[in-house]
Amino acid sequence: MHKQKAVVIGSGFGGLAAAIRTQAKGYDVTLLEMRDKPGGRAYVYKDQGFTYDAGPTIITVPFVLDELATVAGKKIADYVDIVPCDPFYRIYFNDGKVFDYRGEQASLESEIAKFNPDDVEGYRQFLAYSEQIFDRAFTDLADHSFHSFWEMIKVAPDLVRLRAEQSVYKRVSHYIKDPQLRQVFSFEPLLIGGNPLRSSAIYAMIHYLEKHWGVHFAMGGTNALVRGLVKLFEDIGGKLILGARAEEIVVENGRVKGVRVALGSQEEDLADSTRKPGYRFNKTGEEYFEADVVISNGDVANTYRKLVKPEHRRKWTNPRIERMRYAMSLFVIYFGTDRTYEHLPHHSIVLGPRYEGLLGDIFDKRVVAEDFSLYLHAPTRTDPSLAPPGCECFYVLSPVPNLKGGQNWAEIKEEYADRIFASLEKDHLVPDLRKHLKSKLIFTPQDFHDRLDAFQGSAFQTEPLLTQSAWFRPHNKSEDVDGLYFVGAGTHPGAGLPGVISSAKVLDKFIASIR
Asked: pTM surpassing 0.85?
């Protein structure tokens, strides 16, 4: 009897989750990764003894990982050690004020009272609202398929009742009056590529899920979780092939037949300043993988545009894909110092002098502003093994426009990085940073385009607007090609580690077990 075969394109968290679930269903699964290491955006770089997580650093809703391992008959604790962070974030304001964002209610209310005692009661009301959103939008709908418009119609009354047409910032402002506290409780859509001023209030659920389950970190870095999931996948019989770039999803009579792949190796040396822009792929051959099912964890826009020929696409044509609104990008500096900074927490949010104006520059004007807000990650606070003894490991990111802004990042990246370093020194976060710098790697929107094949260099694929959520997003099951499915940030339910892992669970509605 012919054993049914599945090919998964891309080994980010969505692809790993889909590969594990599909292998557990009895398929013979091959997972293809174009880079030299698994993980996609959750790649890892090493330089001079420092270990840098390339992408996601925050693990929320860890039960989705427990559930994934259980599907495969395993325990996630056997593959990775996940530990809580406290505080979740420390938020630094431009005027010197500091807010420690914690899960414990009394501690959090004490922090709120330092800014405005009258907002404590408003916060309690916001938390109750956030829980309502979570119960409907995540618990009930995160693994909902939204394959037909009728499914959207059924949930529309709830969305209206929960004021989903309003922005996160507007809903927060309904409950909380202090301007700085409004920033504290509305910034989280930025973690999934959204503008708090227009991302649907649905995304207010992020506050509840963080508060309820906490913010966590994988010992060894987030890529240790990638490696753990790869081992789990291989332990149940799956096959991972690195340096395998999908060139075409082969379609016959409207149905997938396989994936044509270029085999080779990709150079991934961010420290090499002489590297020419663009994807460097040393082609050593081509291979064809037959498939009854193809699941793409790649960028949805580029999967359709580059891998599925136009004659097979009636709905997802190039013009339609290009009309969608794509999320911001990120400018990321990975750096290591020859001293430690014990006063810093694991996660810091450094807010600039402007909030609404800066968001307008990034999302609407698409300009690189003189000021910026930053996320500073200090993983050695939790796991000192990620840096040499007596050293500190960092990652700082600045939200910036995607490539539609037209910036030449090769020309401006060093100057922009230096301005970020100066800001971190000035704010007494990382004193004398440049004097103690031992390692520095830079990743720009152009790298998202070149290395990750991200359309418009977006770090999160489609922007999380109400008109691009649920049924309005590219669907998990392709409407154009039978047997083609999508997981990851560009499909339902969206970006963020819980979202992309849940996107693989959506496929249970379409891909039946054949054991």
From this structure: yes
